[in-house]
Design goal:
The protein contains eight helices and no strands. The chain is mainly α and about 260 residues long. It folds into two domains: about 110 residues; about 140 residues.
């Protein structure tokens, strides 16, 4: 199991190095090689995650390592889907390193497989945590697009205008997708909490920061839809929101222990 995980890590790292080197020195061959390597890493990543689930006899999402592993896989999946459907090769230079960053965090966590804690033995387990993986991955990829938008907007070229419009619309769609699943996370978590702890809302740090994250992206959607805000300001909004997502994901467990400290 550890061999599969670290093979995944090495392949992602190789893809990132090839991507950055190819971009920095304008070497098309390196860029072309980086993508198959990334796809191979993704495939090995999927095999590792499935194998861990089989060995554990459950969905592999029960602790910080497993969630971070799935989070990284979710970011990689969204990059692959977006590149395939929208020919958005430009996203790789930001999203590939983000996949590796999240997987690096996973590598720093204990990898041992344990039985589910009693509080996690619920039909809501997969829905609640799986939705969080999709939501966080969508927000992080939207932040990557926001960063690329800011860098491209400085060049101010005619070809760039078309790409900027694509980026703006794509980031909006990702935030809408992530917001939907974060809403599922909060609602399913409330129902699950009532069953496990006899209270829909306990003001646990994880709950509070999930709500803060939800409000931040609700503000983005409001500005985007009601006030028709676009451009660099909204791109910065997405970039700045990513640290909040990471704090909700990892920072809360480290600095603000509570009922969710095991996850």
């Amino acid at each position: 199991m550890k061999v599969l995980f670290f093979l995944t890590f090495i392949l992602y790292a190789t893809a990132v190095i090839l991507q950055f080197t190819g971009t920095a020195f304008k070497k098309e061959k390196l860029l072309k090689i980086s993508w198959p390597v990334f796809l191979l890493a993704f495939a090995v990543h999927l095999v590792f995650t499935a194998a861990r689930g089989v060995v554990a006899g459950r969905i592999p999402l029960s602790n910080q390592f497993e969630f971070a592993n799935a989070f990284a896989w979710g970011v990689a999946l969204m990059l692959i889907v977006i590149r395939r459907r929208m020919k958005a090769d430009w996203l790789s230079v930001a999203a590939m390193p983000m996949t590796l960053l999240v997987l690096t965090y996973a590598a720093l966590q204990p990898m041992e497989i344990h039985d589910l804690m009693p509080a996690l033995r619920s039909a809501w387990f997969g829905i609640h945590i799986g939705s969080a993986v999709l939501s966080y991955a969508a927000f992080v990829v939207a932040g990557c697009i926001g960063l690329r938008y800011i860098l491209l907007a400085k060049k101010n070229t005619e070809d760039g205008e078309s790409r900027l419009r694509q980026m703006d619309y794509l980031s909006y769609r990702l935030v809408a997708f992530g917001f939907l699943f974060l809403t599922v996370v909060i609602l399913s978590g409330a129902i699950w909490a009532e069953q496990a702890w006899s209270a829909f809302w306990t003001w646990d740090p994880k709950e509070v920061w999930a709500l803060i994250t939800w409000i931040i992206y609700a503000v983005y959607l409001h500005l985007r839809l009601r006030s028709k805000r676009k451009g660099v300001v909204m791109a910065w909004f997405l970039v700045i929101a990513v640290p909040v997502v990471f704090f909700t994901f990892a920072g809360v467990n480290t600095l603000l222990p509570g009922l969710h400290s095991y996850g």
